Amino acid sequence: MSDQQPRLHRVNCLDAGGLHRVAYWEWGDPANLRVLVCVHGLTRQGRDFDVLARAMSDHYRVICVDVAGRGESDWLPQPMDYAIPRYVADMVTVLARVNAETVHWVGTSMGGLIGIVLASLARGPIQRLVINDIGPALEAAALTRIGNYVGTAQTWATPEDAADYMWSNSRGFGPHTKEQWLALTRPMLRPIAAADGGGFRSHYDPSIAVPFRAATPEAAALGEAALWHAYDAITCPTLLLRGAESDLLSKSTALSMTQRGPRAALRQFSGVGHAPTLVAHDQVQAVREFLLAS
Fold it and tell me: Domain count of the chain?
């Protein structure tokens, strides 16, 4: 595997109170106008895609975004701004900055929802779309599971301790070696100053949990209807990835996504729940073959 490392950039994005900076990690030739954008899940960050980015950087400039409130991006002053419309607006700014002629998209979980909305827009930029283990209809039990840990203030003495804790909430990601899991964990951590006790904390703003927990059944129903409307408006080729044991993307929702809108091609991975991490060779190859088929 290449020892290539990404370049960190930031762009100012407009919000109701002023500006916030969104960070993104760039892989591959910076002059390449063929761009692959990778966007992570709710509590994750852009370095989740290191393995995929290395595998795709021979054909693309790969842009792995830290969504606002995560990773190296600024935290938002208003917690209720942690929502899909804000994220979509930020992505439009990122795409303007990277000056892409071709835009392909890989979105895991929340990143898939952002991709659905962006791909649905008139004159939208996305030409090929990969949606990783998410759909317009979300299973209530999985949302409850996620709500039980998102936003909780945790600290750890070592990265290994953090990895063990995160694995307890992430077994749905499927089998990983110890080295793979530590590689996924380290970018999730931020050091705590020795004067404050030392150790490590999570990278994200705990306030991302505020709108997640404030959602009512009525709001969830309206959101689902809006997402189906967006999905049905997509016209670009679309690949839907699903962990065969996913508790967030049901079999019936995945089937519906193959029969309406862009009629996504479906690829499922056995022994995996929510969500495939795109580290395993077969997962990387599924994405690569789809994106390079054009």
Answer: 1
Instruction: Determine the Cα–Cα distance for residues 174 and 131; give it in Å rounded to an integer.
Output: 18
State how far the Cα of 115 lies from the Cα of 107, in Å rounded to an integer.
6
137: tokens are: 């209809």
Identity of the residue numbered 283: Q
pLDDT tens digits, residue range 128-155? 999 999 999 988 888 888 877 787 878 9
pLDDT of 294 reads 66
Q: How far is CA 43 from CA 1, 12, 78, 90, 130, in A?
A: 27, 22, 17, 17, 19
Burial string for 21-55 (b: 16+ CB within 10 Å, else e) reads: ebbbbbbbeeebeebbbbbbbbbbbbbbbbbbbbb
Q: Report whether pLDDT(253) > 90.
A: yes
Q: Which range among 13-27, 131-145, 265-279 shows the weakest confidence by mean pLDDT?
A: 131-145
Q: What is the mean pLDDT of the chain?
A: 94
Contacts of 194 (CB under 8 A, 6+ apart): none
- Per the rule left: phi > 0, alpha: psi between -120 and 50, beta: everything else, 170 is alpha
What CATH number should be reported for the domain holding residue 261? Answer: 3.40.50.1820
CB 269 within 8 A of CB 160: no
Residue 182 lies in a domain: no
Alpha helices (runs of H) in the chain, residue ranges in sequence order: 50-56, 84-98, 110-120, 140-147, 159-169, 178-185, 209-214, 217-233, 251-259, 281-291
What pLDDT, in 10s, does the model give residues 180-237? 999 999 999 999 999 999 999 999 999 999 988 888 888 889 999 999 999 999 999 9
Domain that holds residue 76: 7-144+226-291
Tokens of 72: 């190296």
User: Would residue 160 count as lying in a domain?
Assistant: no
